[in-house]
Amino acid sequence: MGLRFGVALMGACLSAGGCIEEMADAELLDEDVAMRDGGSTTCPVWRCGFNSAEVNGRAIRELNLDGLANADGMRIVGFVAPLGLLQLQQFKLGVEKGELVARSQLGTTLRGNQLIGATILVAQTGSLLPQVITVLGHQKIDSWAEGAPQVSTYTLVYPDVNALLGMRNVCTGDLLDAVTSAVTVIGGETYDLETKTIQPDRPRWMTLACAGSAAAKLQLMNYGPQSNFDGAGHPASLAQRQATLRMITADYCGDGHSYTENGTALSWENAGGTVVSPGELGALEAVWSANGALCLETPRLGDPDVACDLPACDGFSLEEGEWVTYVPGA
Predict the structure, then answer these.
(1) Which terminus of the chain is more solvent-facing, meaning fewer CB atoms within 10 Å of its CB: N or C?
(2) Which residues pair with 198 in a beta bridge?
(3) CA separation (Å) from 193 to 125, 258, 314?
(4) Residue 25 has pLDDT above 60, yes or no
């Protein structure tokens, strides 16, 4: 079986319906959370997913395309096109509409499967030895939003002599998942891990959002900063994106504290009606805005000690917020 064909068959069940397996998001809550079940029938890969993106223990969740160092001192120091005549051209890597794109001064553009075999060189500040990240696969998966285009996802690996296949996926330390398409890219925006806030308008920065992370879910819901949210080429507003992040991470109080954990079922509906869980939604949990929950009825974890005083949801609706969530079976 060819590599491209093999990778394409490895996508998990990606329909947006049913009660969603939520998690205490590894990317936005705890970078040290152990890997969840990557693609099993109990929790599909894009619902629970993997750890935050890293190379040999160094975070690459956020990378600057012009070589500035991230908070962990990691930076991009080079990009090499796939082998062949194209390597004679110099390419500049970017993120356009949620996909990696490489353009040369001669007018050549590489995207999607054309990037398979390309390498991104990263290094820690002060180190002369770069780490090689290879684009091993590309796969388009269905958006969770009605009418939205498919989302580009990538298999990014780096060499590791201790791994079964001699390489590891940047999104997981599990030996069996090296060739899983497990990361989507978000351009021009990063995310604060502590406060659960969006850091917008960051040109030439990209977020490598691993499957199951809040950032990846935001992208799959068509709420990314480069997404065509309104059908006219415009993304969701910053307030809409922030409300989505609060909702996914169960940040009721808007203070960065999340009241969810791995495997917690959740159903949702957005104000535009483009992202709706079908079937029985369950008991109403909350209505969400950019500041957190406007009201709280049935917390998804049962009876947590919520640090803020929120009213019941009588009288609240999607007219006041961006999302309403439900707890199936409650």
Answers:
(1) N
(2) 191
(3) 22, 11, 32
(4) no
Checking phi first, is residue 9 left (phi over 0); if not, alpha (psi -120 to 50) or beta?
alpha
Strand ranges in the chain using DSSP code E only, listed in sequence order:
20-22, 54-55, 58-59, 62-64, 74-80, 91-96, 99-104, 109-111, 119-124, 131-141, 151-159, 167-169, 183-187, 190-192, 197-199, 205-210, 264-270, 283-289, 292-296, 323-327
Residue 316: pLDDT band by 50, 70, 90 thresholds? very high
Longest CA span, the chain: 65
8 Å CB contact between 317 and 290: no
Query: Which stretches within the chain are classed as H helix?
Result: 3-8, 214-220, 238-248
pLDDT in tens, 31-63: 332 222 333 335 667 777 667 899 989 999 999
Ramachandran angles phi, psi of 294, nearest 5°: -75, -30
Whole-number pLDDT of residue 272: 95
pLDDT of residue 320: 94
What is the rounded distance in angstroms from the CA atom of residue 21 to the CA atom of residue 217?
12
Report the percentage of the chain scoring pLDDT > 90: 67
What is the rounded distance in angstroms from the CA atom of residue 66 to the CA atom of residue 158? 21
Alpha-carbon gap, residue 34 to 172, rounded angstroms: 9
**Confidence at 84, pLDDT banded by 50, 70, 90:** low
3-state secondary structure of 197: strand
The pTM of this model reads 0.85
What does the pLDDT read at residue 218?
96
Label residues 39-67 b or e (16+ Cβ within 10 Å = b).
beeebbbbbbbbbbbbbeebbbbbbbbee
Please report the DSSP string for 54-95 in residue order: EETTEE-SEEETTS---TTSEEEEEEEPPSSGGGGS-EEEEE
- What is the distance between the alpha carbons of residues 48 and 117, in angstroms, rounded to a whole number? 27
E strand segments, 2-44: 20-22
